[in-house]
């Protein structure tokens, strides 16, 4: 079975969020399940700068985007035994960062068309193209509208994974004629709610739709979570399934993590405590291995539940805790947390940045990790925390509900603390229950040992994706 995995980012080449982690780890897991798999990415400037010596030139050709003929170069590299192809066009991709430009719609329309044009030139004609999010959601449109008459392309099937339905790829009506260039029969497929909607077109045309947890697959059929696409998803619910994300257990491993001061595993929890002391020193916190450290590594945006934290922050700090935050986002939240950091020196560390090294140190050195999300398709941070023996506190939503089962204080079964309502004091109640167990050291160490031995690797999920691919062939 030949699979082309099409994404706008993939670790280690380029990563801005969870999609980068998924696209970096899932293909290797699929290969272990017997898939012949390649990944295709844009050749961003950041990729050229960091991996130039590992890139091999393959070929070049023109891509017709409506009335324009545009240059496309193809490069490739190998990582974890998987071949990665890169679409080169400096006009579209010689930019930093990867997203956030006025012409993102055109950039990723070009990428989607170019990857299809590439197939007859790289000696890899896939059985299935696995598209990811709105950036590759036009692939099914181009496949049918521009390549459907070519026998080699007629047998290709498509799968679209929705990593976050909030981002859909919306552009004005003239985009159909000026950029996409397919016949008028595809207008109704592309048109939705007074604009062209990339993701909607893929929901209609793809052979299967997946999303990144079973609960999220149900939630996005509800208007509250669907950002306007509930009706379309309910029309196509027969194609929809949820497959929870995994993590790369080699990349996230406290026994080998290069960023940690002290390596450890479930049999050496003392070194986790030593890491906490080092983190406290690094961040200017009071050095005290007996105080519980609660952390967040997150984007500071509304759907991450930041309003709940903001509402009870000072009430939470009446507990004997330390609080660490790493992330960037909306100005109002950044300013609030800076204020809290200044008001509580030695107890609060606010880091308005993104730093991979510090993120891993926080995952490993904290005792508790807070994810009070309003919506969360899957979430990876809670899975990383389990790997590092840090207990998650989460709202029961999306993938958080699927991956974090509440700890039973008697049997110690479960792997975290949860709350249901989007309510700040319900969240605070979960925090207090977690702190209570923290001080019962025998029980606490049993919980840490248990959660570190949970297998959240990609193996099970990869098998489910293989079943999805098999179902469309």
Describe the model.
This protein has 473 residues and is an alpha/beta fold. It folds into two domains: 2-246 and 459-472, Rossmann fold; 270-452, Glycogen Phosphorylase B (Rossmann fold). The protein is built from 21 helices and 18 strands. It has helices at 18-32, 45-51, 90-93, 104-118, 139-147, 151-154, 175-180, 187-190, 198-205, 214-219, 223-226, 230-235, 270-283, 306-316, 331-343, 356-365, 381-387, 398-403, 424-438, 441-452, 459-472; strands at 2-6, 36-42, 56-65, 68-79, 82-88, 128-132, 157-162, 170-171, 191-192, 195-197, 208-211, 240-242, 293-297, 322-326, 348-351, 368-371, 391-395, 417-419. Strands 3-4-5-2-1-6-7-11-12 form a nine-stranded mixed beta sheet, sandwiched between helices. The protein has a six-stranded parallel beta sheet with strand order 15-14-13-16-17-18, with helices on both faces. It is globular and about 70 Å long. The model has no long low-confidence stretch (mean pLDDT 96).
Could you give a short description of this structure?
With 473 residues, the chain is of the alpha/beta class.
List the topology elements.
Blueprint: E1 2-6, H1 18-32, E2 36-42, H2 45-51, E3 56-65, E4 68-79, E5 82-88, H3 90-93, H4 104-118, E6 128-132, H5 139-147, H6 151-154, E7 157-162, E8 170-171, H7 175-180, H8 187-190, E9 191-192, E10 195-197, H9 198-205, E11 208-211, H10 214-219, H11 223-226, H12 230-235, E12 240-242, H13 270-283, E13 293-297, H14 306-316, E14 322-326, H15 331-343, E15 348-351, H16 356-365, E16 368-371, H17 381-387, E17 391-395, H18 398-403, E18 417-419, H19 424-438, H20 441-452, H21 459-472
Parallel strand pairs: 1-2, 1-6, 2-5, 6-7, 7-11, 11-12, 13-14, 13-16, 14-15, 16-17, 17-18
Antiparallel strand pairs: 3-4, 4-5, 8-10, 9-10
């Amino acid at each position: 079975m030949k699979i082309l995995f099409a994404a706008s980012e993939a670790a280690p080449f380029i990563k801005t969020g969870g999609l980068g982690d998924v696209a970096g780890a899932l293909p290797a897991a699929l290969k272990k399940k017997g898939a012949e798999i390649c990944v295709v990415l844009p050749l961003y400037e950041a990729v050229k700068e960091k991996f130039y010596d590992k890139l091999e030139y393959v070929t070049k050709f023109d891509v017709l985007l409506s009335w324009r003929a545009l240059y496309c170069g193809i490069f490739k590299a190998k990582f974890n035994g998987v071949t990665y192809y890169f679409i080169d066009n400096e006009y579209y991709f010689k930019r930093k960062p990867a997203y956030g430009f006025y012409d993102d719609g055109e950039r990723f329309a070009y990428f989607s068309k170019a990857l299809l044009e590439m197939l007859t030139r790289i000696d890899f004609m896939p059985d299935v193209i696995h598209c990811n999010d709105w950036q590759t959601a036009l692939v099914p449109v181009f496949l049918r509208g521009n390549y459907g008459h070519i026998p080699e392309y007629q047998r290709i099937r498509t799968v679209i994974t929705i990593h976050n339905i909030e981002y859909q790829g919306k552009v004005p009506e003239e985009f159909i004629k000026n950029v996409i260039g397919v016949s008028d029969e595809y207008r109704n497929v592309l048109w939705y709610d007074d604009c062209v909607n990339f993701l909607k077109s893929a929901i209609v045309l793809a052979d299967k739709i997946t999303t990144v947890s079973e609960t999220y697959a149900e939630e996005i059929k509800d208007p509250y979570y669907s950002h306007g696409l509930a009706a379309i998803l309910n029309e196509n619910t027969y194609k929809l399934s949820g497959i929870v994300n995994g993590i790369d257990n080699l990349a996230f491993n406290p026994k080998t993590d290069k960023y940690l001061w002290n390596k450890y595993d479930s049999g050496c929890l003392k070194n986790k405590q030593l890491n906490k002391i080092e983190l406290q020193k690094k961040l200017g916190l009071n050095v005290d291995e007996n105080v519980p450290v609660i952390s967040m590594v997150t984007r500071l945006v509304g759907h991450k539940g930041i309003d709940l934290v903001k509402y009870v922050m000072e009430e939470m700090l009446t507990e004997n805790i330390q609080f660490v935050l790493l992330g960037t986002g909306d100005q109002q939240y950044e300013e609030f947390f800076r204020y809290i950091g200044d008001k509580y020196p030695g107890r609060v560390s606010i880091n308005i940045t993104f730093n991979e090294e510090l993120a891993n140190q926080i995952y490993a050195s904290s005792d508790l990790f807070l994810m009070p999300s309003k919506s969360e398709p899957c979430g990876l941070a809670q899975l990383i925390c389990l790997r590092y023996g840090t207990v998650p506190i989460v709202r029961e939503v999306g993938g958080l509900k699927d991956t974090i089962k509440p700890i039973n204080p008697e049997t110690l079964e479960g792997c975290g603390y949860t709350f249901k309502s989007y309510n700040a004091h319900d969240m605070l109640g979960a925090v207090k229950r977690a702190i209570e167990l923290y001080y019962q050291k025998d029980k606490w160490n049993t919980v840490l040992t248990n959660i570190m031995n949970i297998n959240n690797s990609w193996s099970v999920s990869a098998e489910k994706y293989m079943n999805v691919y098999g179902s469309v062939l």
